[in-house]
Design a protein that fits this description.
A six-stranded antiparallel sheet has the order 1-2-5-13-7-11, covered by helices on one side. Strands 10-9-8-12-6-14 form a six-stranded mixed sheet. A two-stranded antiparallel ribbon has the order 3-4. Helices cover 14% and strands 45% of the residues. It has one domain: Jelly Rolls. The two termini are 29 Å apart. It is mainly beta.
């Protein structure tokens, strides 16, 4: 099955992502929201929307991180669902992104703005190709990768999950 993951990595020209896995930006709106019309949390103008391909394989994971915009994940193909872990009010909530509605999986999952979240494959010998759409558009100024020590101070009851999804 890994030749299928390699096929998509090569075919889509995916590159290593700083939070784990593989990605490529495929859309960045040419239209801009000016900073004066955006909420105060944004430091400058933002594209209206952006979109990437994102692939996880085997033991790849997306460590805890958050961004300042809503992010919508879309399942495209693969032989594994992705479990997304959210930290909501100091507790872990989980959702499954995948094609099997009988197993509580969904084709799309929303990650609300400023929500700490992480993700991994359910089937560690599999892969999943997904898309992520962000609005207002993604900017690395809005990205915060969770630092293990800081997350443990904020959420001491979530030590197990934080140790698995942070460095």
């Amino acid at each position: 099955m890994m030749e299928q993951a390699l096929f998509w990595i090569e075919k889509l020209n995916l590159q290593p992502h700083p939070e784990g896995g593989w990605f490529k930006e495929i859309y960045r709106s040419s239209e801009i929201y000016q900073k004066k019309y955006l909420p105060e949390r944004y430091s400058s103008d933002r594209n209206i929307s952006t979109s990437i391909y994102y692939l996880l394989e085997k033991n790849d994971k997306s460590n805890f991180h958050r961004i300042q915009s809503d992010e919508l994940w879309h399942f495209y193909t693969g032989n594994s669902a992705i479990e997304i872990l959210f930290i909501i009010e100091g507790k872990i909530q989980k959702k499954l992104l995948g094609p099997d509605f009988n197993k509580e999986q969904r084709f799309q999952i929303l990650i609300p703005q400023n929500t700490w979240f992480a993700a991994h494959l359910v089937n560690k010998s599999g892969y999943a190709l997904i898309g992520c759409t962000v609005s207002p558009g993604f900017d690395f100024d809005d990205f915060e990768l969770g630092q293990r020590d800081n997350l443990l101070k904020l959420f001491p009851d979530l030590e197990k999950e934080i140790l698995l999804f942070s460095e």
